[in-house]
Design a protein that fits this description.
The complex is a heterodimer. Chain A is α/β, with parallel strands linked by helices. Chain A is built from 21 helices and 21 strands. Chain B has a two-stranded parallel sheet. The radius of gyration of chain B is 17 Å and the shape is globular. Chain B starts with a helix and ends with a helix. Chains A and B meet through β6, α6 and α21 of A and α2 and α3 of B.
Chain lengths: ~525, ~180
Amino acid sequence: MQNIQNKNVLMVVLDTHRYDRLGVYGYNRPTTPNLDSIARESLFFEQAVAPGQWTIPSHASLFLGEEPAVHRTLQADDALPKEFQTLASRLGSTGIQTTGFCNNPLVGILQNGFRRGFDHFYNYCGVVPSTPQKTKDDLWKPIRKLWTKYTQVLRKLSYPIQNAFASPNEFFLAALRPLFVPLWTKAANFKGMTARSINETAGFLEGVERERSGGHFVFLNLMETHMPYAPPDEYMKKFVPYFDETPEAQQFMHAFNRKAMQWLIPLEKPFNEIESATLSDMYDAEVSYQDHLLSALLEKVNTNYHRDHTMVIFLADHGEMLGEHGYMGHGFGLHEELIRVPLFIRLPELQEMITVQKRVSITQLFHTILDYFGFETLSMPYAEEVDVGSQSLLQFTAKHDHVPNYLISEAYPPDNAVRIMNNHTPELIQRFHADRIHRAVYHGEEKMITIDGISNLLFNLAVDPAEQYPYQNEDQLEALAKALNSYLELSTSRQAYSSKKKISLEDELVQQRLRDLGYLE
Amino acid sequence: MMMAALQAGGMVLLTDHIRRADENNPKGYFEYERIKKLPEGDTDWLKTAQGNAVKVISALLEYLPDRYRYRVLFLERNITEILASQKRMLERTGIKEQHPTSDEDMQQALLDHVAQVKSWLDERDWIKTLSVRYNLILRNPRKEFLKVANFLEQPLNVESMVEVVDPKLYREQNK
């Protein structure tokens, strides 16, 4: 193990961020000057892919270094398999301090094991957020103390209720009614507190610099680009300038922001031109607003200390469908808008931008971070020694590897969304094969989207980047299907070591064991 | 081990010696029985305990009254080692579990419990916490005990604390 005390990692997950809305990925609107500037000093991945289409499987892969077919944390009420050690646990076992700042309730609230191994985990979303405490002695201290007590009680009450919403049950369906949507999106901080979480992460990094303490892993998840969309006026004027004078756009957004059901399932009919433009432009405004807020963080990571000691990673866990191919949100399908994601890593020793064209998976960040901290091999449930370097993305600082590789992404249908469709629009299930597993297999410019037992669509992304024209090539399809079979066989053998578990609060088990051991009465 | 180290370093321990050293814990338990009464509101003893170290299991932390300030050394160890140690204790003492639980379920429950307690500690402004990992103490006791002394802001004798750590334990762990 190298000297970890001189090294830090900041990993920023831009939740629900499309790659094609960043200038550095070729977008022609000035949405992301701040992200573009750090990307231009980074190991820049042109073709990064998410292992799954939404938060749960994608974050599980990031935290465990395994594909969804192995960890099977696929639904909102699934918990991480206990057999696999999380990234934070592995880092913590060597003395690295692990701290999370999180805006996504699926990661920060549910009792699903995602926070396992973190020394400190701050949660900015939900009914009662838990953010860093102020400890200074001032006139407000007694009031803060009372408030803290009050929030503790509320939080204790709220956790089981919030967990209940993770299951495809009546709670969840009721919450999606337009009447209740403003309640949980605003009062319950569904999108967290982007500005505050960024500022507090920046403050934390300032402290690390001040104390020269080193040996930190910091995780930040940002949700500003997630639905519903309500960017500040300044960004509306810049990116949706016609909004104030277009009643149709206003009515559409008003209804869209309240119809949470529509965020989760494919469209019954395509958006018209105004609807489509409004939605896309509102998304751009959110992207730009978040980029602006990130300047406070970039200022901190651009100091000499952090440039020399801190690896800074920006990525998205998945993108977003805004009506393309009939899809909305990030529940279904595996098109590029959804699973191709931004990814760039600024390394202390890197002098200039290195562009990597080879397709990589964000799952590899697990190995990349461990590699950076000096891990060489890992013990996994299915193997005693797994090589870290061969999966690490740091190898691309020295290697110009253009040999095409097979890469797979999977979309398991979210139970919650299928339940909605069953109740309201059952015809959509059949039209989009929404109750089936979809898988995408990449090789070079070829991409096959296969729907379990139903169809295999082949696209050439070089000539058809929008995936509009599937074509036939039996040899290609056969080769891609063969690669998928190998992947599934390997996953099945590893899956045997991973128990599938639903969220539950089993504290009673702990209490009972402690009683048996004589530690409790 | 931490309680023994704190004592060696010069910290005054709050312990009643009711639970005596045994095969499971040859150096002693350093426990204070009244801790178990915390859920019933028995907290008077805290008045005279200021400046002392007392062992509290994680499940009882939430019953500590907030009228005092605490520095918590949160001792962490690999869950599989904890489970193995608990099983050994149960076997040696011949205690039958009231509700036998599989190792897998218990492991998950303990992991969830630790995550919840840490999150709870983060939210308390009257408690300062330092996570201390068992395997790091075995690997580099001097460095870890220095951290402890700094955190407690006590002039502890770190060299005496280091002597408490049995180097055999480190070798055994690395076999």
